[in-house]
Structure to design on (706 residues):
DNA sequence: CTGAAAGCGCTTACAG
DNA sequence: CTGAAAGCGCTTACAG
């Protein structure tokens, strides 16, 4: 390999063997204290004389000392790893969530370990258990739908693993929850369509295994009700949060007489399917049909017409979730930042006369 | 929390306190050997009497013993963590790669730690270094474009961290490379278009920071040349692997006179942009224009018309990369499984007369 | 406020 | 083929 580009390192000059990283013993010796006192500084114990602390901190900084998480973990009987446990098939969701978690963990010394899972697998709980116990995880963040799994939560509580569940509505103690309040998004969708004069509106739900399916529907119904409208059972179809299910449900809805003038799809993927079905059936969007999605993932801007949707701040939610897990919840932020909000684009318009 | 759904555990019956996990000392005592001998069994040392080994293995199985990776790591001076270092902005790529890595790591006792990075950041190498050194990673997998960064590779080599680079062409020693051979995909795209009778073909490349941009172009040119066609500089635009850049480049190409009858976009994202631009300019696909992408991510099937593209087996590539990193490369598989291949859908058709 | 001893659960280096 | 001792780099429990 080319030596060009090899980084200069502080650890060793040219020709010297790489010096090993300093340990707590090195720092103790250099600061003329016991390693226990260095340990107190590392762990921010209040019982250290101010001058002693400053001396030790100076030595630590000078030598770029960082405690070994493995040794620390062995003594603490837990690791400095945080697990992301997920079963959401949407890559955009997963990546946004990961980025949010990493945002919140930045500088904390923790690392993120990913654990996709399958609630339907017979070894689901056993796998989760061995993942958490073997690595002695500091804690895990659970996202939908596995966040709504009582078996998983009970297992974690049972083995004493800290966790935070991200879900559309509270299903656990407050310190173990981040609520995304999808219901509010459903309401906003309904009100947007009502404001555009739509009366015959339809809804395509996600699968019942996701609590968000229900919350989005109930929010939508509540929003319609606030404008004197109702969602008929004929105009309600159960999808699966997939593109294909969006197509199928939309085809059924577009064959109704009279045809609905607007469809609220439970997520952007299904909304993309609705647009596809409309195109195939010669239904113009938004002239003949308004379409609204949920998520505001990248696909929303790529669709044609571009998709009116409900934005969910997934990355921000992820940041909040880990911070809460690490006990560093940052209360200063506007809670508004984490609520679903309407994004109007081209796929919605006034109801046809 | 509801106790319903709490998993039954072998570790403790009702009312009992949870028993701690067995350690190497427990196994040694139960098998009437020293812990060193248990250690030999754990580490598959050949120097253990067959009967001794079997006795120990039975005790291990009976008690569900699994060595503590932290303690093992402390003694080994390295962890059982594998890092995924990436800067590819495409969520589908990242998730597919992660799934592939996890496939390959399944049952190995290693865990996957994710590390997105930014080559343009001034702290890029320092961040990578501290990530690897602090966690004493077993090794890392690098994916494009960071896989092509000589500074990163040199740093890892310097600090003695094993790594495997996933790139379109070999840029390192064979044991440190997984080649995706994107050039072959470019060739297949060219031959498909040539077979359909296209003569005036255009290309939208990715950014120069990705080696794949060049490989896909060179493959395309080679494929055209094999059919007596050439790619003119007028018909070559530099995009950025983004939807928006696909739109911009396609608009420029579609204003040429004579207009190209086919466009090969360097990835599916840009191909989506080409379809968008064509729609806006009233150019029909595939009647007036054939479009072909690269990747075969989910978006390809959702576009309208659905996208002809080059499939890249990202998940399989990921599986191979970690196995190679762990020294368990599985040579039995057909190498064919990992090559790019043409997927014909609706966006390509015969050249207009 | 500070430290010496013992221990976390493994492995290495050395004996036998 | 097997084991007793020492050590990996930290923390806990106990003294002072």
């Amino acid at each position: 390999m080319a030596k060009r580009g090899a980084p200069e390192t502080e650890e060793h000059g040219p020709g010297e063997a790489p010096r090993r990283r300093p340990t707590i013993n090195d720092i103790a010796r250099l600061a003329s204290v016991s390693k226990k006192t260095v340990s107190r500084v590392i762990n921010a114990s209040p019982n250290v004389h101010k001058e002693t602390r400053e001396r030790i901190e100076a030595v630590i900084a000078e030598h770029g000392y960082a405690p070994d998480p493995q040794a620390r973990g062995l003594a603490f009987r837990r690791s400095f790893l945080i697990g992301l446990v997920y079963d959401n098939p949407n890559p955009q969701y997963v990546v946004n969530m990961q980025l949010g978690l990493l945002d919140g963990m930045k500088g904390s010394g923790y690392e993120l370990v990913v654990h996709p899972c399958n609630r339907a697998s017979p070894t689901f709980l056993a796998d989760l258990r061995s993942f958490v116990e073997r690595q002695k995880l500091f804690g895990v963040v659970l996202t939908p739908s596995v966040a709504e799994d009582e078996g998983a939560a009970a297992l974690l509580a049972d083995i004493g693993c800290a966790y935070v569940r991200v879900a559309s509505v509270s299903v656990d103690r407050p310190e173990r929850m981040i609520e995304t309040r999808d219901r509010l998004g459903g309401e906003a969708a309904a009100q947007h369509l009502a404001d555009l004069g739509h009366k015959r509106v339809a809804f395509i739900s996600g699968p019942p295994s996701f609590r968000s399916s229900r919350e989005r529907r109930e929010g939508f119904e509540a929003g319609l009700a606030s404008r004197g409208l109702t969602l008929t059972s004929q105009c309600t179809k159960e999808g699966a949060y997939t593109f294909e299910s969006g197509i199928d449900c939309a085809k059924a809805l577009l064959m109704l007489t009279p045809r609905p003038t607007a469809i609220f799809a439970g997520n952007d993927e299904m909304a993309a399917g609705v647009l596809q079905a409309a195109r195939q059936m010669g239904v113009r969007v938004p002239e003949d049909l308004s379409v609204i999605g949920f998520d505001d993932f990248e696909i929303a801007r790529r669709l044609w017409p571009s998709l009116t949707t409900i934005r969910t701040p997934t990355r921000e939610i992820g940041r909040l979730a880990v911070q809460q897990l690490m006990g560093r919840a940052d209360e200063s932020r506007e809670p508004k930042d984490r609520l679903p909000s309407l994004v109007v684009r081209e796929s919605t318009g006034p109801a046809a006369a």
In short: Residues 24-61 of chain A form one domain. Residues 23-25, 35-36, 39, 42-43, 67-77 of chain A lie near DNA strand D (CB under 10 Å from a C1'). DSSP finds 13 helices and eleven strands in chain A.
